[in-house]
Amino acid sequence: MTKLRMVLAENLKVYRNEMGISQASLSELVDTAPNYIGMIEARKRFPSDEMLEKIANALQRESVDLFSKTPLQKQWQETLLEQLQKSLLVEFAEFMALKLKTLREESGNTPRNTVK
After folding, report:
1. Based on the domain organization, do 63 and 100 belong to the same domain?
2. Does position 58 have pLDDT exceeding 80, yes or no?
3. pTM, whole model, 2 decimals?
4. Domain around 41
């Protein structure tokens, strides 16, 4: 499997999802078989030059955009950022709970129902 097919398949999914259209809808827009877009996304088929142009036009993109690594990298970056934010929030909450417990213990003001 070539990197070219992989990038095309992933970008096609990203651009199609950004537009909110299904594989079948995109197939209709480019006047091809209903499962053809799915086959491209599954990396089982590679479109002709003419079909690449039709797909790009239907997605309101330039055909070269279908081979750019940018959308895929952007999606990975957003996912990574989301995971990092969640992780930081959990760590911050744990830190604050520990700090609060320490402050209560130091002041001698521990709640009665606290398990030690």
Report:
1. no
2. yes
3. 0.60
4. 3-67
Give the span between the Cα atoms of 100 and 109, in whole angstroms: 11
Side chain identity at 2, as an amino acid letter? T
CA gap 80, 98 in Å, rounded? 27
Tokens representing 63 are 């055909």
Q: Contacts from 37-42 at CB under 8 Å and sequence distance 24+?
A: 37/12, 40/8, 40/9, 40/12, 41/9, 41/12, 41/13, 42/9
Residue 60: pLDDT band with limits 50, 70, 90: very high
Single-letter amino acid, residue 90: V
d(CA 113, CA 29): 64
Return d(Cα 100, Cα 116) in angstroms, integer.
13
Residue 114 has pLDDT above 70, yes or no: no
Whether 115 maps to a domain, the answer reads no
User: Burial, 72: exposed, middle or buried (Cβ in 10 Å; 0-12, 13-18, 19+)?
Assistant: middle
pLDDT score at 74: 65
Say if 92 falls within a structural domain. yes
